[in-house]
């Protein structure tokens, strides 16, 4: 070897035909590991993200570089295509089974150019919107919510595409919030609902079955946990939403969900809403659910017209006896005022007979937003027996609280 090296240095100048040959061969050999095409700078480890196999790779010879192989096709990808194929690979590795609809449409036609594709996917939002699960058309956010994958949910919602993706629907009209509201079994259900609502999810979008997210939640919930219900109501969901011919309050009453029923009433749900059988929520609810509903009243419900019921809603006795009808007739004849709501409870507004109505002082125990008429004498109004018990409890608490405050200020009996 010590003899061959100087022999080469001496023989090269002697052959005039060989003076340029080494330079012609050496130039491409030195430049081959550093291709000038920006697409060829793609890392070798991303082949599995693109779904390629070992047979797609070229041998590195001059003949392989001239063929139109899948590797050369990938070398011509622009940054948007690289991002889209990478995100497809990442999601499918997590079991999302999404397909690249925009890229597939572009590559199906042989004359699709890179420029035309770049115009369709020039932003991340178009890339995410273009990813769909083939069976039901669900996007990455839908599948992430169904799987409870909070990492992917946060990654999508904290990106610039959140406004375009958060209310996207699948083939059945479901948004990601529909799936989140129906995933009550998952411990991260409330977290996902809160994240979607904070990102701008619309709680009033209906799917093809006519269900809003709050309707899906009430139909699927099997435990009386009002956490998600409160979030949806605070975001603007309608508490009087009807689901399959019944209101949300009917569903809560039928399933004996006292806490949920109370929350719905607190947000303004009507206790007089009718189901398909013509029954009101108050009539089908258990005693426990009734107490929760009556305690949750924070604004004056409308008086139920006497034309809606002819019997007491507590004891089923006739509302207007013959004696009561004659008495009202003569009072009107003599010019006395006859109340139109003499059978209504002042607190809940429902209809009861005279035996089930009692005079109750409510001046200090009604909620701040509870107003009916300024002419009402709040020192003594008629309330049904269940409401009278609730108002009496509030009166005792109010008196105890007032006595405690007076004792702190030195006005109590023990001062």
TrEMBL record:
It holds the Pfam family Ank_2. ANK repeats lie at residues 172-208, 244-276. Residues 51-60 have a biased composition (Low complexity). Gene3D superfamilies: Ankyrin repeat-containing domain, Zinc/RING finger domain, C3HC4 (zinc finger). It comes from the Eukaryota. Keywords: ANK repeat, Repeat. PANTHER family: ANKYRIN REPEAT AND PROTEIN KINASE DOMAIN-CONTAINING PROTEIN, ANKYRIN REPEAT-CONTAINING PROTEIN-RELATED. This is Myosin-like protein. It comes from Lagenidium giganteum.
């Amino acid at each position: 070897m010590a003899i061959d090296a100087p022999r080469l240095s001496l023989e090269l100048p002697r052959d005039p035909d060989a003076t340029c040959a080494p330079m012609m061969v050496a130039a491409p050999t030195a430049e081959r590991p550093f291709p000038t095409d920006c697409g060829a700078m793609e890392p070798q480890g991303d082949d599995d993200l693109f779904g390629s196999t070992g047979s797609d790779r070229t041998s590195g010879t001059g003949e392989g570089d001239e063929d139109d192989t899948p590797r050369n096709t990938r070398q011509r990808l622009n940054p948007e295509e690289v991002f889209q194929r990478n995100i497809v690979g990442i999601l499918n590795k997590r079991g999302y089974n999404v397909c690249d609809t925009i890229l597939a449409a572009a590559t199906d036609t042989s004359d699709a150019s890179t420029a035309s594709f770049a115009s369709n996917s020039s932003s991340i939002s178009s890339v995410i919107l273009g990813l769909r699960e083939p069976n039901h058309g669900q996007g990455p956010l839908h599948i992430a919510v169904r799987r409870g994958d909070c990492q992917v949910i946060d990654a999508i919602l904290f990106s610039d595409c959140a406004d375009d993706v958060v209310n996207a629907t699948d083939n059945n009209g479901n948004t990601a919030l529909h799936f989140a509201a129906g995933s009550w079994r998952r411990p991260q259900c409330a977290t996902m609902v809160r994240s979607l609502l904070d990102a701008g999810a619309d709680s009033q979008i209906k799917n093809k079955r006519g269900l809003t997210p709050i309707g899906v939640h009430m139909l699927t919930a099997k435990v009386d946990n009002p956490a998600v219900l409160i979030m949806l109501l605070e975001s603007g969901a309608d508490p009087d939403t009807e689901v399959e011919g019944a209101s949300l309050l009917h569903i809560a009453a039928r399933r004996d969900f006292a806490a949920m029923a109370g929350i719905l009433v607190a947000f303004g749900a009507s206790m007089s809403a009718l189901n398909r059988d013509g029954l009101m929520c108050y009539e089908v609810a258990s005693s426990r659910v009734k107490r929760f509903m009556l305690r949750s009243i924070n604004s004056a419900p409308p008086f139920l017209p006497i034309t809606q019921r002819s019997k007491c809603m507590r004891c089923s006795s006739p509302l207007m006896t013959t004696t009561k009808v004659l008495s009202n007739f003569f009072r009107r004849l003599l010019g006395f005022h006859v109340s139109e709501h003499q059978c209504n409870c002042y607190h809940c507004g429902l209809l009861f007979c005279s035996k089930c109505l009692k005079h109750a002082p409510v001046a200090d125990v009604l909620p701040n937003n509870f107003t009916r008429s300024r002419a009402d004498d709040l020192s003594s109004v008629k309330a049904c027996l269940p409401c009278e018990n609730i108002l009496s409890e509030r009166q005792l608490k109010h008196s105890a609280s007032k006595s405690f405050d007076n004792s702190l200020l030195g006005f109590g009996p023990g001062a």
